[in-house]
Structure formats: C-alpha cells, structure tokens
Design goal:
By secondary structure, the protein is an alpha/beta fold. Helix content is 32%, strand content 27%. Bound molecules: zinc ion.
Length: 245
C-alpha cells in the first residue's frame, strides 16, 4: 500500500515538490506507526512496527530509511568511527546524510550522478573528478551494480582514497559467480535478468571481492545476522565488504 501510494504520488507531482514536502508527508504516515516496540536508529523515532516492503525489508515511516541504511549507520558508529575523517558518500539517503554531516567528520561530501538524491556533487564514478588520495572513507552502497565499467570505477575509488583509507561496498548478491552480459541492455531484459531496470549485473560476494582485489584493494567481509528482537529493524542478514587501500 505504502509503495503504491508513493509510486502514484511520483507520477502526478514533480520530484522537487515531493522532496520539499517529504518531511510533512512522512510525519502524517509515521503517526500511524508510533509505538514502543522498535526504534529507528537513524532518526530516533519510536515505533510499534516498521513498514514491511515486498523486496527491501523494513522501512522507517518517519525518515524513510531502509534496513541496510540503519545497519550502515550502526556499523559506521561501532566499527568504523567518523571523527576527523574526510568522507565521500555516493547516493546518500537524506536522513543518514544529515546525521553524518554532524557526526564529527572533518569533511563530508555527497555525490549522486543521476540526481535522484540531494547531493553536493555529480561525480562520474568511472572518471572521478577528484585529486588522488583525498578521502579516508568512501561509502558506496548499491552503486556498482549500475555501472557498466565497474573495474574502472573500482580503480577510481582506489585512486582517491588515502593509503589506509577504506571503502564500504554493498550490492545485491547471488550465490556462485557474477552474472553479467553486455548484450542484456534493454530495461525490460535487465529487470528480468538482473532484478532491476537499471542494473547491469548481479554480483556474488566472492566475485565482488575478487574484482575489488584486482584493482589493489585488501578486502575483508563483514556479515551481520539480526538479533531475534531486532529493535532497530536491521536486515535479516547483510554482507558488506570493507575494501582498504
Ligand atoms: Zn527513521
């Protein structure tokens, strides 16, 4: 119901208008979910339930954060640390972006090539307009599966990281090998084969890890399984890769 409503709203009103009034619209919806059983760790809203999405798990009605975004925020706080870091964030969801900005980072830069998210820059990940070795931390969640020349993108991420800097990478995953085929190029075929109209492949964890290693990264895996109570509505299971220069 929620998703249908959102898709319908996107059709009849301009994106700009939706962005401007998003807070008010969400506030109305969030009231119906107010409670004490769960809490969104990104916006702090207390909930009786998260909105259950068909494919993406639990959505916060108040800030719109997805399960993976809430987990990313927790992981940044607990395992990575943000203080005094120079951070680049690709296609950042709004609320986590606001929190990151005020988290004690030295500098926080946001970028979105397709202009779907509010961002400071419109960097082309295959040819990043930044000097070498400027970032301590790059967040690249659900981006590489959209990029045709992903090896070039990975090499660019490596180039702009400081030595010892880390890039957090996450995409949808499958078992086995990476599935990609340059001949599958129409939106319909991509939806059928790769799960979304603008995806150009489906990675496996192994495949993505090896590809990141091939451009020079040292890669470690992190897998989380949500606790039974799942107070913050994290993904049931999530694997992310930490690629270090
Ligand atoms: Zn929230």
């Amino acid at each position: 119901m929620y998703v249908q409503l959102k898709n319908w709203a996107k059709k009849i009103v301009p994106n700009q208008w939706l962005r401007k009034h998003e807070g008010f619209l969400r506030g109305l919806i969030a009231l119906q979910y107010k409670g004490k059983t769960y809490q969104c760790n990104v916006c702090g809203y207390a909930l009786r339930a998260f909105i259950e999405l068909e494919d993406k798990g639990k959505l916060c009605p108040n800030c719109g954060s997805l399960a993976r975004t809430r987990y990313l925020w927790q992981f940044l706080l607990d395992a990575i640390g943000l203080k005094d870091k120079v951070v680049l964030h690709f296609s950042p969801p709004k609320k986590i972006s606001q929190r990151l900005k005020r988290s004690g980072v030295k500098e926080y830069v946001t970028t979105d090539f397709e202009n779907e998210f509010t961002a400071d820059k419109q960097l082309n990940i295959e040819e990043i307009d930044e000097r070498d070795a400027v970032y301590d931390l790059i967040i690249c969640f659900h981006v590489l599966e959209h990029i045709e020349n992903d090896r070039k993108a990975m090499a660019e991420l490596y180039r702009i990281l400081k030595p010892g800097g880390r890039c957090l990478v996450q995409t949808p995953f499958k078992e086995g090998a990476i599935y990609e085929d340059a001949d599958i190029s129409t939106p319909e075929a991509r939806l059928k084969h790769f799960g979304q109209e603008d995806h150009v492949r489906v990675y496996s964890v192994n495949g993505l890890e090896q590809r990141l290693q091939s451009v020079g990264f040292k890669v470690t895996r992190h897998t989380n399984t949500a606790a039974a109570t799942n107070f913050h509505g994290f993904p049931k299971q999530l694997t992310l890769l930490i690629a270090e220069k």
